[in-house]
Amino acid sequence: MKQNRILLSILTVAILLPFCILLSAKLELILFKIIIPILILGIVITLLYYFSFGQLRITLNDRKLDFEWKEKPVFNFKKYNSILIDDIKKVIVDQGIIVKIKTDNTEMEIRGINSEYIKSDHTDSLELLKLLEKEINIKPIDSWDVWNERGWLKIAYRINFLILISVILIVITYIILKGFNSKLLLLIPLVLSQLIFSYFQMKSKLK
Fold it and tell me: Which of 19, 49, 50 is nearest to 36 (CA)?
């Protein structure tokens, strides 16, 4: 999966969710109030998931990593050239899973790993991380560290905060004007939890 695609997907859902709530409020039939917003969000989330995720197979031969994406009808990811593990300069890890490998002139995003010897993506990532730490003695960093190095983290932190406040205000306004309807607000915690989680992660890195 690709972080930039995931962030775009989260932003799309955050923008679409208030629209679905307002659309539902304008519908007369209760059945339509529930089904239509859920159907719209379901279709969009499915497409965004397909847009954001893919399967990457990694093999190691003679200190060289080979990469192969599983082909999709659409939304295919950029193909990666093979690299020597001795050329690796940075390994970026989020939540215990390798997300990027960088050399001096190459950057590979590899959040999902399917190896030839281990089936579990998470286990594969840990095995590859242990191997790289052992073979090239490299210390992993996380994505927020990279954003901080590039000067993007403060901007992302402020945007995330504005979106978080906007979503909360929209929900509060809707409840005040239309009353609380748990069936329509079931998806709110999904968006808020991601925004709040990202907020505290970025805040910890800015200290």
Answer: 19
* pLDDT at residue 55, rounded to an integer: 72
Query: Which value, to the nearest 10 degrees, does the dihedral of the CA atoms of residues 146, 9, 110, 113 take?
Result: 140
Q: What is the CA 80 to chain-centroid distance, rounded?
A: 20
Residue with tokens 């805040």: 203
Q: Is the pLDDT of residue 197 over 50?
A: yes
Q: Is residue 44 within 8 Å of residue 67, measured between CB atoms?
A: no
- The region of weakest confidence among 7-21, 37-51, 108-122 is 108-122
Residue whose C-alpha is closest to residue 17's, from 140, 149, 187, 155: 187
SS (H, E, C) 63-95: CEEEEEECCCCCCCCCCCCCEEHHHCCEEEEEC
pTM: 0.53
Phi, psi of 199 (to 5 degrees): -60, -50
Which has more pLDDT, 201 or 18? 201
Of the two residues 3 and 158, the one the predictor is more confident about is: 158
58 closest CA partner among 69, 42, 72: 69
